[in-house]
Every structure is written in structure tokens, then in C-alpha cells.
Amino acid sequence: MRADTSREPASAVLCVAAAASLWGVLGVFSRSLSDAGLNPVQITEVRCLMAAACMLALLLAFDCKLLRIQAKDAWMFIGTGLLSISMFSVLYFTATTMVTLSVAAVLLYTSPCFVMAMSVLLFGEALTHRKTAALVLAFAGCVLTSGLLGGGGAINLIGVAAGIGSGFGYALYSIFGKYALRKYHPFTVTFYTFLVSSVCLLPFSEPVVLVSAVSSSANVAIDVVALGIMCTSVPYFLYTYGLNRMDAGKAAVIAFVEPMVATLAGFAVFGEAVTIAGIAGILLILASVFLLNIEGESGKYSRNP
């Protein structure tokens, strides 16, 4: 379905903002599951498994033909599922246990810069002055957000590295997804992405221990459902609805509320402090993403499922 960019109904704007808000509280539930004893691999496993199950139910109910793919295209979904979603999720959930939710979320938002850099190297795209400025802003933002300058406390370099790594892993989705979306519907790509991720991580997630942990506590089960449905499946549908009715670059800019919500959630739920340097870093990184989204190929850098 092609986006109708001639007008942007309020419902589309609200859906994109709601999706970004739900993504923003992802760290709240992942940290809760971590406190319950689940490791980042197990948290990623339950998230991807729940999302794949929801997507499968939707496709079976409305259009089974979207489940058809060609075997020769499996590499695309290995890229989006294993190399991207699995990597970025594990690293992001690791980061949320080591740094504040605002830092983890804003470091994840460096992904458009990685997409831009890889597009220059892999696809021969021009490195313009605007793109260079975006990289400089993103780097400066990472320095400030991580606490390397004016942070006023101990710096968890492993947590910062995990956050930046999650941004790189997420960027890989745009690279592999670029090929997959040329042939397949977004729902098809999303389903097989989460399916591949959940299947590949299953042997490393200690399934027996994982099932026991989820079934033994109602709170853990609720967090799993919230993570897989409320923070993954629902926001994807909302974002897709909005994206089909507005320009991709504008949708990506509206999605800037995600790290803001993560910051508020960290403060409200965990009492995380917000420093002046951290706020400045967040603004610099968001400014870099804004520059990339007005480059003229904004759809490439928009949020993907």
C-alpha cells in the first residue's frame, strides 16, 4: 500500500506517536524481567516468540498467501532476524540493565547514522555535508549522553558499548530489509524476522528454565505479554498504519518521542536522574536523525518493526 502523503490525518499522527511511546517503555518491562532472573537472550526470545505468534495469527486470519516465501530468499530473513533483531535486542536489553533507560534508548537511536555510513560504503551513496554534520552531531551526542563529559558519575563503558552496538544491530534491519521489502509485504517480512530470531535464539535461551520462570510467576507472565504484544506487536501495527498515511520522514521525526518517553519512564519508575549533559546529548542525537530525515531519502531511515 502506498502512503498518501497529500494529507496527514490526525489519526495517523496519533498512531505514530502512540507507537513510539510504547517502544519507549520497552526498557521498563525488559528490566523487570531482568530483575526476575531472565537474561537478555531469554528476554529477546520471549519478545520475538510472542511477536511472531501474534503476526502468524493475523496472517492466518486475513491473508495466508502472505506466508509464502521462496527458499532462495532465506538469507534476507536471516539478516533481519538473526543479524539485526536478535543482535540489537540482546544488546539493548543488556544496556538497559547497565545504564539509564534514556541513555539506552538514545544510543539505540544512533542507528540511522550507521545506516547512512553503510549505505555510503555498500551502495556508493554520496557523503554530503549534511550527512557529515549528522555524524558529528551523533558522535557528540553519544559522548554527552554516555557521561564521558559532564556526566557527574561513574561511566559504565560496557553499557554504553552495548547501547551503541544495539544501534548498529538495528541499522542492519534497514540494510537487509531493503532487499526483503522489494519482494514481500511488510507483514511477511516482520513475521519471518521475528520467527527466525526466536528459532535461532531458542537453543541459547535455556527453554526449560525460561518456561519455568514464566509459568511460576504471574508478574513475569504479565511482563512477557506486555513486552511481546504491547511493546512490539501493537506499536508495529500502529506505526505501519500511520506510515501508510504520511511521509516516512515525518513519521520518523514524530517517533522522536520514543527516547523522551524512555527518559520519563526511567525517572518515574526507577527514579533515574537526568543530567544537563544527558539532555544535551539526547537533543544532539535527535538533531542528527532529523538531518538525515530531511536529506531527501528519508524513508530509508525511518523506524522499522
Please characterize this protein's 3D structure:
It is a single chain. This protein has 305 residues and is mostly helical. It has one domain. The protein has helices at 10-24, 26-35, 40-62, 74-96, 101-108, 111-123, 129-146, 157-183, 186-201, 207-216, 218-243, 248-254, 257-270, 276-293. The longest helix has 27 residues, at 157-183. 51% of the residues are buried.
Q: Which keywords apply here?
A:
mainly alpha; disordered N terminus
> How many whole angstroms does the radius of gyration measure?
18 Å
Query: What's the shape?
Result: globular
Cα-to-Cα separation, first versus last residue = 16 Å
* SSE order, one letter for each helix or strand: HHHHHHHHHHHHHH
Mean pLDDT: 83
Share in helix: over 70%
Number of domains: 1
Largest beta-sheet details: none
Instruction: Please tally the β strands and state the result.
Output: 0
How would you summarize the topology of this molecule?
Elements: H1 10-24, H2 26-35, H3 40-62, H4 74-96, H5 101-108, H6 111-123, H7 129-146, H8 157-183, H9 186-201, H10 207-216, H11 218-243, H12 248-254, H13 257-270, H14 276-293
